[in-house]
Amino acid sequence: DIQMTQSPSSLSASVGDRVTITCRASQNIGSYLSWYQQKPGEAPKLLIHVASSLLSGVPSRFSGSGSGTDFTLTITNLQPEDCATYYCQYSFSSFGPGTKVEMK
Amino acid sequence: EVLLVELGGGLVQPGGSLRLSCAASGFVFSNAWMSWVRQAPGKGLQWVGRIPSKSDGGTPVYAAPVKGRFTISRDDSKNTLSLQLNSLTTEDTAVYYCTTVLHWGAAGTTDHWGQGTLVTVSS
After folding, report:
1. Average pLDDT of B9-31?
2. Nearest C-alpha of chain B: how many angstroms from A31?
Protein backbone atom coordinates (compact mmCIF):
# COMPACT_ATOMS: atom_id res chain seq x y z
CA ASP A 1 0.00 0.00 0.00
CA ILE A 2 1.09 3.54 -0.68
CA GLN A 3 1.45 5.45 2.60
CA MET A 4 0.50 9.09 2.92
CA THR A 5 2.01 11.39 5.52
CA GLN A 6 1.07 14.96 6.41
CA SER A 7 2.69 17.78 8.30
CA PRO A 8 2.07 19.43 10.59
CA SER A 9 -0.42 17.33 12.55
CA SER A 10 -1.96 20.52 13.86
CA LEU A 11 -1.49 24.25 13.59
CA SER A 12 -2.87 27.42 15.06
CA ALA A 13 -3.14 30.54 12.95
CA SER A 14 -4.83 33.91 12.91
CA VAL A 15 -7.54 35.26 10.64
CA GLY A 16 -5.91 36.47 7.43
CA ASP A 17 -2.85 34.24 7.74
CA ARG A 18 -1.49 32.06 4.99
CA VAL A 19 -1.46 28.39 5.98
CA THR A 20 0.44 25.60 4.26
CA ILE A 21 -0.09 21.89 4.79
CA THR A 22 2.19 19.36 3.17
CA CYS A 23 1.44 15.81 2.12
CA ARG A 24 3.95 13.20 1.04
CA ALA A 25 3.33 9.89 -0.72
CA SER A 26 5.60 6.89 -0.19
CA GLN A 27 5.71 6.36 -3.97
CA ASN A 28 5.16 8.45 -7.07
CA ILE A 29 1.40 8.98 -7.44
CA GLY A 30 1.54 11.47 -10.29
CA SER A 31 -1.25 13.96 -9.72
CA TYR A 32 -3.69 11.49 -8.13
CA LEU A 33 -4.00 13.53 -4.98
CA SER A 34 -7.14 14.92 -3.37
CA TRP A 35 -7.64 17.24 -0.42
CA TYR A 36 -10.60 16.96 1.94
CA GLN A 37 -11.91 19.22 4.67
CA GLN A 38 -13.80 17.75 7.60
CA LYS A 39 -15.56 19.70 10.31
CA PRO A 40 -16.70 18.03 13.56
CA GLY A 41 -19.84 15.98 13.14
CA GLU A 42 -19.84 16.31 9.37
CA ALA A 43 -18.84 14.10 6.47
CA PRO A 44 -15.65 15.10 4.67
CA LYS A 45 -15.88 17.53 1.80
CA LEU A 46 -13.67 17.33 -1.29
CA LEU A 47 -11.87 20.61 -1.93
CA ILE A 48 -9.26 19.77 -4.55
CA HIS A 49 -8.69 16.82 -6.86
CA VAL A 50 -5.90 15.88 -9.25
CA ALA A 51 -3.58 17.85 -6.99
CA SER A 52 -4.59 21.34 -8.03
CA SER A 53 -8.11 21.40 -9.46
CA LEU A 54 -10.47 23.31 -7.20
CA LEU A 55 -14.00 22.02 -7.03
CA SER A 56 -16.82 24.35 -7.95
CA GLY A 57 -18.01 26.34 -4.97
CA VAL A 58 -14.77 26.01 -3.01
CA PRO A 59 -13.39 29.44 -2.12
CA SER A 60 -10.44 30.54 -4.22
CA ARG A 61 -8.34 31.07 -1.08
CA PHE A 62 -7.77 27.31 -1.21
CA SER A 63 -5.15 26.04 -3.63
CA GLY A 64 -3.22 22.86 -4.21
CA SER A 65 0.06 22.09 -5.87
CA GLY A 66 2.58 19.35 -6.36
CA SER A 67 3.07 16.10 -8.21
CA GLY A 68 4.90 12.85 -7.77
CA THR A 69 5.43 12.46 -4.03
CA ASP A 70 5.17 15.96 -2.59
CA PHE A 71 2.02 18.04 -2.42
CA THR A 72 0.83 21.20 -0.73
CA LEU A 73 -2.51 22.64 0.33
CA THR A 74 -2.42 26.39 0.85
CA ILE A 75 -5.08 28.51 2.45
CA THR A 76 -4.52 32.21 1.94
CA ASN A 77 -6.39 34.76 4.05
CA LEU A 78 -7.51 32.18 6.61
CA GLN A 79 -11.13 32.59 7.72
CA PRO A 80 -12.81 31.32 10.92
CA GLU A 81 -14.92 28.89 8.91
CA ASP A 82 -11.72 27.19 7.72
CA CYS A 83 -11.21 25.66 11.16
CA ALA A 84 -11.33 21.97 10.37
CA THR A 85 -9.20 18.91 9.85
CA TYR A 86 -7.67 18.54 6.40
CA TYR A 87 -6.79 15.21 4.84
CA CYS A 88 -4.89 14.38 1.72
CA GLN A 89 -5.82 11.21 -0.14
CA TYR A 90 -4.20 9.21 -2.88
CA SER A 91 -7.25 9.18 -5.10
CA PHE A 92 -9.66 6.35 -4.24
CA SER A 93 -7.04 5.01 -1.84
CA SER A 94 -5.20 5.79 1.38
CA PHE A 95 -5.61 8.97 3.41
CA GLY A 96 -3.02 10.98 5.26
CA PRO A 97 -3.39 11.24 9.05
CA GLY A 98 -4.89 14.71 8.91
CA THR A 99 -3.94 18.24 9.89
CA LYS A 100 -6.11 20.08 12.39
CA VAL A 101 -6.33 23.81 11.74
CA GLU A 102 -7.36 25.98 14.67
CA MET A 103 -7.73 29.71 15.16
CA LYS A 104 -5.43 31.58 17.46
CA GLU B 1 -30.01 14.85 -6.36
CA VAL B 2 -27.29 12.32 -5.57
CA LEU B 3 -28.06 10.23 -2.52
CA LEU B 4 -26.07 7.52 -0.77
CA VAL B 5 -27.82 5.76 2.10
CA GLU B 6 -25.98 3.20 4.21
CA LEU B 7 -27.74 0.47 6.14
CA GLY B 8 -26.67 -2.41 8.28
CA GLY B 9 -24.52 -1.11 11.10
CA GLY B 10 -24.87 -2.27 14.66
CA LEU B 11 -23.29 -4.07 17.58
CA VAL B 12 -21.41 -7.27 16.87
CA GLN B 13 -19.16 -9.46 18.99
CA PRO B 14 -15.46 -9.91 18.23
CA GLY B 15 -15.05 -12.58 15.58
CA GLY B 16 -18.50 -11.88 14.21
CA SER B 17 -19.74 -10.73 10.83
CA LEU B 18 -21.88 -7.92 9.50
CA ARG B 19 -23.04 -6.81 6.08
CA LEU B 20 -23.39 -3.15 5.17
CA SER B 21 -25.22 -1.87 2.15
CA CYS B 22 -25.34 1.48 0.39
CA ALA B 23 -28.30 2.43 -1.77
CA ALA B 24 -27.36 4.92 -4.47
CA SER B 25 -29.54 7.21 -6.53
CA GLY B 26 -29.31 10.34 -8.65
CA PHE B 27 -26.47 9.20 -10.89
CA VAL B 28 -25.51 6.38 -13.22
CA PHE B 29 -24.32 3.96 -10.56
CA SER B 30 -22.89 1.46 -13.01
CA ASN B 31 -20.40 4.05 -14.28
CA ALA B 32 -19.16 5.09 -10.83
CA TRP B 33 -16.15 3.98 -8.83
CA MET B 34 -17.35 3.44 -5.28
CA SER B 35 -15.43 3.38 -2.03
CA TRP B 36 -15.88 2.58 1.61
CA VAL B 37 -14.18 4.83 4.15
CA ARG B 38 -14.32 4.45 7.91
CA GLN B 39 -13.64 6.68 10.87
CA ALA B 40 -13.07 5.35 14.35
CA PRO B 41 -14.34 7.56 17.18
CA GLY B 42 -12.10 10.60 17.49
CA LYS B 43 -9.73 9.33 14.81
CA GLY B 44 -8.91 10.17 11.21
CA LEU B 45 -10.33 8.89 7.96
CA GLN B 46 -9.28 5.40 6.92
CA TRP B 47 -9.83 4.12 3.42
CA VAL B 48 -11.30 0.62 3.50
CA GLY B 49 -11.47 -0.24 -0.19
CA ARG B 50 -12.82 0.60 -3.61
CA ILE B 51 -14.60 -1.09 -6.46
CA PRO B 52 -14.26 0.29 -9.97
CA SER B 53 -17.06 0.28 -12.48
CA LYS B 54 -17.38 -2.96 -14.40
CA SER B 55 -16.25 -1.14 -17.52
CA ASP B 56 -13.01 -0.36 -15.67
CA GLY B 57 -12.55 -3.95 -14.58
CA GLY B 58 -14.75 -4.06 -11.48
CA THR B 59 -12.11 -5.71 -9.29
CA PRO B 60 -12.17 -4.51 -5.68
CA VAL B 61 -9.00 -3.30 -3.97
CA TYR B 62 -8.64 -3.30 -0.18
CA ALA B 63 -6.58 -1.58 2.47
CA ALA B 64 -4.09 -3.84 4.21
CA PRO B 65 -5.88 -3.91 7.61
CA VAL B 66 -9.06 -5.37 6.08
CA LYS B 67 -7.71 -7.47 3.22
CA GLY B 68 -8.90 -11.04 3.47
CA ARG B 69 -11.62 -10.16 5.98
CA PHE B 70 -13.79 -7.63 4.15
CA THR B 71 -15.44 -8.01 0.76
CA ILE B 72 -16.80 -5.21 -1.41
CA SER B 73 -19.36 -5.96 -4.08
CA ARG B 74 -21.78 -4.08 -6.26
CA ASP B 75 -25.13 -4.84 -7.83
CA ASP B 76 -25.56 -2.42 -10.70
CA SER B 77 -29.09 -3.70 -11.37
CA LYS B 78 -30.11 -2.54 -7.88
CA ASN B 79 -27.80 0.49 -7.61
CA THR B 80 -26.39 -1.01 -4.45
CA LEU B 81 -22.91 -1.24 -2.97
CA SER B 82 -22.18 -3.78 -0.26
CA LEU B 83 -19.47 -4.40 2.32
CA GLN B 84 -19.23 -7.79 3.99
CA LEU B 85 -17.25 -7.59 7.23
CA ASN B 86 -15.92 -10.86 8.67
CA SER B 87 -13.63 -11.78 11.57
CA LEU B 88 -14.33 -8.44 13.20
CA THR B 89 -12.11 -7.07 15.95
CA THR B 90 -12.50 -4.10 18.26
CA GLU B 91 -10.18 -2.20 15.90
CA ASP B 92 -12.94 -2.28 13.30
CA THR B 93 -15.26 -0.16 15.44
CA ALA B 94 -15.99 2.92 13.35
CA VAL B 95 -18.50 4.85 11.34
CA TYR B 96 -18.48 3.40 7.85
CA TYR B 97 -19.16 5.70 4.90
CA CYS B 98 -20.06 4.87 1.35
CA THR B 99 -18.58 7.49 -0.96
CA THR B 100 -17.94 8.37 -4.57
CA VAL B 101 -16.50 11.13 -6.73
CA LEU B 102 -18.48 11.92 -9.86
CA HIS B 103 -17.28 13.72 -12.96
CA TRP B 104 -20.03 15.60 -14.79
CA GLY B 105 -17.96 16.89 -17.70
CA ALA B 106 -18.27 20.63 -18.10
CA ALA B 107 -20.45 20.72 -14.99
CA GLY B 108 -17.45 19.76 -12.91
CA THR B 109 -16.65 17.20 -10.25
CA THR B 110 -18.57 16.46 -7.08
CA ASP B 111 -18.04 14.16 -4.13
CA HIS B 112 -20.77 12.41 -2.24
CA TRP B 113 -20.90 10.68 1.12
CA GLY B 114 -23.58 8.73 2.85
CA GLN B 115 -24.67 9.61 6.36
CA GLY B 116 -22.47 6.87 7.73
CA THR B 117 -23.39 3.76 9.70
CA LEU B 118 -21.83 2.88 13.04
CA VAL B 119 -20.28 -0.53 13.51
CA THR B 120 -19.44 -1.35 17.12
CA VAL B 121 -17.41 -4.47 17.84
CA SER B 122 -17.65 -5.34 21.50
CA SER B 123 -18.32 -8.27 23.77
Report:
1. 97
2. 16
